[in-house]
Design goal:
Blueprint (H helix, E strand, L loop, with lengths): L1 H6 L4 E7 L3 H12 L1 H8 L2 E8 L13 E3 L2 H5 L6 E4 L7 H10 L3 E4 L2 H18 L3 E2 L10 H8 L5 E7 L2 H13 L3 H10 L8 H4 L2 H15 L9 E2 L7 H9 L2 E11 L4 E11 L11 E8 L3 E8 L3 H17 L33 E11 L4 H11 L4 E6 L4 E3 L2 E10 L2 E2 H12 L9 E5 L8
Parallel strand pairs: 1-2, 1-4, 2-3, 4-5, 5-6, 8-10, 10-18
Antiparallel strand pairs: 7-9, 7-11, 9-10, 11-12, 13-16, 13-17, 13-18, 14-16, 15-16
Helix pairs in contact: 2-13, 5-6, 6-11, 8-9
């Protein structure tokens, strides 16, 4: 590891940035504007010496900085000590990071999808080469949630965490709740404002949040990254009626990522969730992010802030750069194992990741039925046969007519039940001749005793 050993005695650490979009450009600006303050913090200089992007951005200052269109030129530059990857996507990002590692460079990345899917490979390569791969900016933008899990809560056994970790989805749910707007209407505005891409699938169907939850769960429980085992459900089927009924019952609907350690195994799931309107996380609105972590010693702690944006995400990128430079003692080689990449020096592979059918929670059900005598008795009987309690019930006034018959929405909250059992009960209810369409089912989380 020649380069890192040489870097140990250096007073200047050279940074190469690959990608000058929102985050990369913000990182370049932040490093250039805070030279003096960073030097005071580190006792060393942290300077951008090489950048690569497809085209020059005239808004950036390239004085004293080498510019390349080939990102691999940065990975191969012997003068660069730390490579910042903010390209996004899988390729060439994965090949770039592995090239940089092989060349003995440390890496800072904001690429949550890459870490969630290929992180195990990347971290193994970094261990073999003796370099650091840091990724605070990959989850929740400017919120230092990875540092909190890896360092601040290191004395805790994490029981569960739950987060609003996609700003686009939270903006949509907030607008639906506060203004009674439809999902489709708010999505169009989110796209116009730049919060959602032209293809919003990753945001609204929960894939982006699942990438982030994968990383959070691995740091919380010390397990290998397992993106393929995260249950993922989006918000596109949530209606304004559901939002209104939830409010009437004292709840808000949020698109949450939830990871929980149970006696049976680990839950990792992303889906719309009813949470009490009294909880702090239920009142996180707009494009903001928040994560609640429940530890056995610290109890519940809440982390709140911007989940995206040039300044917020660049703040996390630069914090990772600072940590890497600080890992060098005076005249010593780097100590990359001081804080393991996924919080734990050894990861557990003996804890199963539960399938969604195996989880237990409470449920919100919205059932559209023909307005006939005895229909509630039939529904109640089926729920009773499956040992499911009704905790709350709303039977609304007729809202439509179908084939000359009045259709009535029935909304209820159930007690805690295993999902597989709820699936059977829903199938039986949907088979009733009085039930006219698929039942809407949203999971409910109480987060009892969390203080948040």
């Amino acid at each position: 590891m020649k380069q890192s050993a040489e870097a140990a005695g250096k007073q200047q650490f050279n940074v190469g940035i690959c990608g000058l979009g929102t985050v990369g450009g913000g990182t370049l600006t932040l490093l250039q504007s805070k030279q003096d303050e960073l030097c005071r913090r580190l006792g060393r200089t942290l300077r951008v010496t090489h950048v690569a992007s497809r085209r020059r951005n005239p808004d950036h200052d390239y004085s004293g900085v080498q510019y390349s269109q080939d990102v691999f030129a940065v990975a191969d530059d012997p003068a660069v000590d730390i490579l910042v990857e903010v390209l996004g996507g899988t390729e060439p990002a994965l090949s770039l990071i592995l090239r940089a590692i092989e060349n003995g460079k440390h890496v800072v990345t904001a690429n949550k999808a890459l870490i969630a899917v290929h992180g195990n490979t990347i971290f193994a390569a970094a261990r073999r080469r003796g370099v650091i791969v840091a990724y605070e900016s990959a989850v929740a933008g400017g919120i230092p949630i990875i540092k909190a899990l890896r360092e601040g809560l290191a004395a805790n056994s994490i029981e569960w965490l739950a987060g609003i970790i996609n700003g686009t989805g939270n903006f949509i749910m907030t607008e639906m709740a506060q203004k009674g707007r439809s999902f489709e209407d708010v999505l169009k505005e989110a796209q116009a404002l730049g919060y959602a891409e032209a293809d919003p699938t990753f945001d609204v169907e929960g894939i982006d949040a699942a990438h982030k939850l994968t990383i959070l769960a691995s740091n919380a429980f010390g397990i290998p990254l397992s993106f393929d085992k995260v249950y993922t459900e989006g918000i596109s089927k949530v209606t304004t009626a559901d939002v209104s009924y939830a409010e009437e019952l004292g709840y808000r609907i949020k698109h949450l990522g939830i990871a929980r350690m149970t006696a049976a195994g680990i839950e990792m799931r992303v889906h719309p969730t009813l949470i009490s309107a009294q909880k702090l996380i239920a009142n996180v609105n707009g494009v903001m992010n928040a994560v609640v972590v429940k530890g056995d010693s610290a109890g519940s702690t809440l982390y709140y802030g911007p989940g995206a944006g040039a300044k917020a995400t660049a703040s996390s990128v630069v914090a990772d750069l600072i940590d890497i430079v600080r890992s060098y003692g005076s005249g010593e080689a780097v100590r990359p194992a001081s804080v393991p990449a996924l919080s734990f020096a050894s990861l557990r592979d003996d804890v199963p990741i539960l399938k969604i059918d195996d989880i237990e929670c409470e449920y919100y059900l919205r059932i559209s039925v023909r307005d006939r005598i005895g229909v509630m008795a039939h529904i109640s009987q089926i729920l009773m046969q499956h040992n499911i309690n009704i905790e709350a019930l709303i039977q609304k006034e007729p809202d439509a007519a179908q084939a000359g018959e009045v259709i009535v929405p029935v909304v209820l909250l159930t007690g805690k039940v295993q999902e597989s059992n709820m699936n059977r009960a829903i199938a039986a209810i949907e088979a009733l001749p009085e039930v006219v369409e698929r039942i809407t089912r949203i999971r409910v989380e109480l987060f009892d005793g969390d203080g948040n």
